[in-house]
Design brief:
Layout: H1 2-7, E1 14-17, H2 24-32, E2 39-44, E3 51-53, E4 56-58, H3 60-69, E5 74-76, E6 81-90, E7 94-102, E8 110-114, H4 121-142
Parallel strand pairs: 1-2
Antiparallel strand pairs: 2-8, 3-4, 5-6, 6-7, 7-8
Length: 144
Amino acid sequence: MLKRALKKGFQAKYVLVDSWFSSHEFIQTVRGLGKKPMHLVCGVRQDTRKYLYKGDSLNASQLKPILKSEGNEKRCRKRNIRYSEVLVDYEGIGQVKLFFCRFPYQKKWRLFLSTDISLSLLSMLEIYSIRWTIEVLFKETNSI
């Protein structure tokens, strides 16, 4: 679908997906499309995929306690979110920014990935929240 959109002249700055589509291969494909590569903002499962952080190859479950011990955890007063953000190398893709977030009244931490390493937490959340609007649009158009 992205390839067809690009052929028709559509150029997006960001591709937004949930964790269902955030595979390593999909991220590589998105970054390789078009004359000017699009950035990806996505939710990511905290699975066995490895990120290179300070010379160590770690998965999300191993990385989270290290960030906490380094005092990297912050609080966003505007959204009442506890979070950590970190730049890591993702094999075959390059530098990405990971955001570990714990939202109010939730015990589990969510993980988000952005290939645009200049994004702040609030900017990333604003961009990612657009995905929900698109989901509602699809649901409403399919129910007609």
